[in-house]
Amino acid sequence: MSSEHMQIGEVAARTELSLRTIRHYEDTGLVIPSARSQGGFRLYTEDDVARLMVIRRMKPLGFTLDQMRDLLDATDRLDSGEELAPEERETLLERVRGYEQEAAEQVEKLRIQLARAEEFAATLQERLTRVPAL
């Protein structure tokens, strides 16, 4: 990954999250800026942006901050490059699988909601085309 550092405004633009939301995720320890500028500004890396994108994708699926933290912890440990005991690695993979399954279930529920919304919009459109002309 690139070691380029970004300020919060660029991160907000890249992730489409508000500054307030990013700061909230910092306050809760989900994302910790990697460095500070000489002026004391928080600086972020591509890895920090990737973490924020994971959070952004989990939020609409109804995952809690604790669940986000748990998943990020599991993926951090799997990606750390450190030697994991086989049973620890399997436990971490099992945690990630659980989130994958829950995400798939939420996606299916959203598909059903979307289909219903589209049907509703179509019935309204059809209703409007039946209004007799004056």
Structural write-up:
A hairpin with a 5-residue loop joins β1 (35-36) and β2 (42-43). Helices cover 66% and strands 3% of the residues. Strands 1-2 form a two-stranded antiparallel ribbon. The protein has helices at 8-15, 19-27, 46-58, 65-79, 86-129; strands at 35-36, 42-43. α4 crosses α5. The protein is mostly helical. The longest helix is centred in the C-terminal third of the chain and has 44 residues, at 86-129. It contains five helices and two strands. The chain is flat and about 70 Å long.
Strand order of the largest sheet: 1-2
Total number of strands? 2
User: How is the main sheet built?
Assistant: 2 strands, antiparallel
| Straight-line N-to-C gap | 65 Å
Relative helix content: 55-70%
> What is the SS-derived class?
mainly alpha
* SSE string: HHEEHHH
Strand content: under 5%
Number of helices: 5
**Tertiary shape:** flat
